[in-house]
Amino acid sequence: MRSALIALALALPSAALAVGTEDGTSPPTPTETTQRCAEGQIWDADAQSCVAPKDARLDDDTRYDAVRELAYAGRYDEALAVLAAMTDQTEGRVLTYLGFVHRRLGEVDTGMAYYRQALAADPDNLLARSYMGQALVEAGDTPAAHVQLAEIQARGGSGSWAEIALARAISEGRTFGY
Question: Where are the domains of the chain?
Fold first, then answer.
């Protein structure tokens, strides 16, 4: 099973491993947020206009989609601004993306602290486990990354993007773009 998983992970193109759709199998589709909006704004589909992330008309799901899109586009400072506008700063997806963005900005210790907070709130947060494991691979701590992979599998994540991406990172000794 493990060798089949690694073979599958190696066969997938890197872009397919980007967190995009809710199940994380494809990159987010670019929207007006990254195509039309000025820096610091996100698209409000209902208003059909670009607005500030703190605009009261936006809900957190819209903000979350914008965070994922901005993070994928490498616009980390803007992603942080949108995360700051989220209603519940202790929500797992907020903590997970705070960890991801800080890690991508080179603030690995800060990123790891957010991953730990996300996992303390929800030990079944597979995305936080995968990102934490990838950070551990980047740090050269493959045994600790294997622990996160085993946790993903034990918590029902076999075959998920979280498992495949981390298995690939462990196998190749490096992470990929996103």
Answer: 1-19+88-178
pLDDT tens column, 60-111: 999 999 999 999 899 999 999 999 999 999 999 999 999 999 999 999 999 9
In angstroms, the CA 136 to CA 36 distance is 36
Distance (Å) of CA 118 to CA 60, 90, 126, 127: 17, 8, 10, 10
Query: Would you identify the CATH topology of the domain 1-19+88-178?
Result: 1.25.40
Rounded-to-10 torsion of CA 8, 178, 43, 91: 90
Q: How many helices (H) and strands (E) does the chain have?
A: 9, 2
| Helical packing angle, 142-154 and 126-138, nearest 10° | 170
